[in-house]
Specification:
single chain; 220 residues; alpha+beta; eight-stranded mixed β-sheet; 33% helix
């Protein structure tokens, strides 16, 4: 089972790079296995194209390394992943990226509002909040992000990057892609509108989406 999860983690990390969500060796990815109560995380400073299942690190929720290849340590951001899983037991996947547009707004410490209906894909909060700055790799950052994600499924990390979470890796990766797209469109809207904020959609409107009842299927 863990080997399958490791392979899924590798494929997600490589897909994120192909989607231009992270470059060089930036960003990190994890999965939580509720059955064994372990966190699987990508290793530090290793190109995603070179990843193998043996290099995926396994830790418990106390930060103890249970399995690694003896060479490549867990991502230095693993405390952040663990803190999120501790505070959000409904989540099993985390994608941390440094993609261009979301990171631009992270540098500006500027939340991204719900400007499109697709914002409902982002989960608990259609707008994207910013977790207050703390040094990468520290318990302070881990707690800042985990606290912010108690009321959201995605957030920016001030002067750093972004986090997308999900009930599974497909959901987390999709949210990371939507975050970057929304950030780019928000940037373009601000640019065209000479810095004036575009209209946003209220959360109650975003929660009203339903498949059109007028579409009838055989037998209905």
């Amino acid at each position: 089972m863990l080997k399958e999860l490791k392979q899924r983690l590798i494929l997600a990390a490589q897909a994120a790079e192909k989607a231009d969500l992270c470059k060089q060796k930036s960003g990190n990815f994890s999965l939580f296995d509720p059955e064994s109560q372990v966190v699987l995380v990508t290793p530090s400073s290793l190109a995603r194209s070179d990843l193998s299942t043996e290099q995926i690190c396994v830790l418990d929720l106390n930060g103890r390394v249970l399995a690694w290849d003896g060479v490549h340590r867990p991502s230095s951001e693993v405390l952040m992943h663990i803190a999120i899983y501790q505070k959000r037991p409904d989540l099993t996947a985390i994608v941390h990226t440094h993609s261009r547009y979301v990171t631009t707004f992270a540098v500006l410490n500027k939340p991204i509002p719900a400007i499109l209906y697709e914002s409902f894909v982002l989960g608990k909060s259609p707008s994207i909040p910013v977790a207050p700055y703390a040094r990468p790799g520290t318990q302070a950052l881990a707690q800042s992000v985990a606290t912010t994600l108690q009321n959201a499924d995605c957030c920016l990390l001030e002067s750093h990057g972004a986090i997308a979470t999900g009930a599974d890796m497909d959901e987390a990766l999709l949210r990371a892609q939507y975050m970057e797209e929304l950030a780019e469109l928000y940037y373009l809207a601000l640019t065209i509108n000479q810095g004036h904020e575009p209209k946003t959609l209220p959360q109650e409107e975003l929660q009203q989406w339903a498949y059109p009842s007028e579409i009838k299927f055989p037998g209905e």
